[in-house]
Design a protein that fits this description.
The structure holds two protein chains of two kinds. Chain A has two domains: 157 residues, 2-Layer Sandwich (Alpha-Beta Plaits); 76 residues, Ubiquitin-like (UB roll) (Roll), CATH 3.10.20.30. In chain A, helix 3 runs antiparallel to helix 5. In chain A, 25% of the residues lie in helices and 24% in strands. Chain A has seven helices and ten strands. Chain B contains four helices and eight strands; from the N terminus they run E-H-E-E-H-E-E-E-H-E-E-H. In chain B, strands 1-4-6-2 form a four-stranded mixed sheet, with helices on both faces. In chain B, strands 5-3-7-8 form a four-stranded antiparallel sheet, with no helix packed on it. The chains are: A alpha+beta, B alpha+beta. The interface between A and B is large, with 34 and 39 residues.
Chain lengths: 267, 150
């Protein structure tokens, strides 16, 4: 089964045609489905009997977000301007992590849409994989973040178990933090949609001002400096250090140039 | 040769530059990517392309190096435009010269597949009803898979 033409014509990834004012309402929800390691491997290899699992689950999640009002009795029908559903295969915890992002410029919040997208994407993953693993568990479906509207920004407080196990790479020895006062600043750059959402192109910080000399510490600092910190929580946000793409947490050195940006779309 | 530029390019001139005087080249494959009037929305009126100066060149050099590690490549050219373009405009040219055709076809496809997923370019599409940043495509990520399997 292939759904490529849906992607090509934008069905899988709804077009955001709203202007990008800060009054927009956004919500990010997440969840995960835990399975046998062998099931996850079949999924990763594309060997599931029902075909392309992730593409199907993504479409299901997007469709579900659009139909939330039909499922939840007191929910309004919304004109969503953007829905994305992303998956992360976590081999260490043998689960698929699902996250959904919804945005609109309407008069009511979008957290129900994001939660519905995650739930239905998880159910679809179950359906697509149940032939090989009936014991899968859908867990931790929850709101991560919402913004816009009267209640303003709400952010889930980080707790140790919310940290994805594979994004925490070992950090190099950081004991030598003495005398950072005269070190060169770290330059931070933002590109494309992220730059527009943050409303800034560049930031600069002295290493001593970070809670830890790591990418994680730097990101924390950036979030404390900007009006739209949730923009840095996009699941597919990419990062480059000194012009090389990096993954996970790494040590950041004085004088480094760190860039954050959305997935690339050249060619 | 890797070039990032605002100006349109002349594919004929690029071909000439690549092939002229080269007597060990038996095949040249060239690819040109263009602006379509439909993509995520059915009526794209224009495209603006942004990049990360410094990193883009490095990423493209890495892609060419990886291709050179897999095929006997005589020469390779990547020209990528940035800025404002309209449907029908050329965006990117990739040319590869080799001794035999199979290597040229494969290397050219390989370079495009990795360019699309690793070089820091971002497209914004303009339509009558507004502009939006183009999303990444699952199919582009899937295209990389075939190079892993070999």
């Amino acid at each position: 089964m292939t759904l490529t033409h849906l992607n090509e014509r934008g069905e899988a990834s709804m077009v955001d045609v709203s202007d990008k004012q800060s009054s927009h309402r956004e919500a990010v929800a997440s969840g995960r489905i835990v399975m046998q390691p062998e099931t996850l491997k079949l999924l990763a290899d594309g060997s599931m009997p029902k075909g392309d699992v992730l593409t199907t689950a993504r479409i299901a999640g997007i469709q579900a977000a659009k139909r939330t009002h039909e499922l939840i009795p007191l929910c309004h029908a919304l004109m969503l301007s953007k829905v994305t559903v992303d998956f992360e295969l976590d081999t260490a915890a043998h689960c698929v992590r699902v996250s959904a992002f919804c945005r609109l410029g309407g008069r009511t919040g979008v957290e129900m849409e994001a939660l519905t997208a995650v739930s239905v994407a998880c159910l679809t993953l179950y359906d697509m994989c149940k032939a090989v693993d009936r014991g899968m568990e859908i867990m931790d479906v929850r709101l991560e973040h919402k913004s816009g509207g009267q209640s303003g920004v709400w952010e889930r407080k980080a707790s140790p178990e919310t940290v994805s196990s594979d994004t925490v790479a070992p950090v190099a020895d950081t004991t030598d933090l003495s005398d950072k006062s005269n070190e060169s600043p770290i330059e931070i750059r933002f590109f494309a949609e992220l730059r527009e959402r943050l409303g800034i192109e560049k930031l600069s910080v002295l290493p001593g001002h970070l809670s830890s000399p790591t990418l994680r510490g730097l990101k924390e600092w950036v979030k404390s400096q900007v009006d739209a910190p949730q923009a840095l929580d996009q699941p597919r946000l990419l990062c480059a250090v000194n012009h090389d793409m990096v993954q996970g947490d790494i040590t950041i050195n004085p004088g480094d140039e760190v860039a954050f940006f959305p997935p690339v779309t050249g060619g | 040769m890797i070039r990032i530029q605002h100006e349109p390019f002349d594919i004929g001139a690029l071909y000439k530059g690549l092939s002229e005087g080269s007597h060990n080249t038996g095949a040249v494959v060239s690819f040109v990517g263009r602006v379509r009037d439909f993509n995520e929305s059915p009526e794209v009126t224009a495209l603006s392309l942004e990049h990360y100066p410094g990193m883009t060149e490095r990423a493209l050099e890495n892609v060419v190096e990886r291709a050179q590690g897999r095929w006997e490549i005589n020469d390779a050219i990547i020209v990528h435009r940035i800025g404002y373009m309209t449907p029908g405009d050329d965006i990117v040219a990739v040319l590869v010269s080799t001794a035999h055709r199979h290597a040229a076809f494969e290397a050219c496809a390989f370079i495009m597949d990795f360019l699309k997923t690793s070089a820091p370019f971002w497209k914004k599409e303009h339509t009558q009803s507004g502009a939006y940043w183009v999303s990444e495509r699952e199919s582009d990520l899937a295209s990389l898979k075939r190079w892993e399997q070999q």
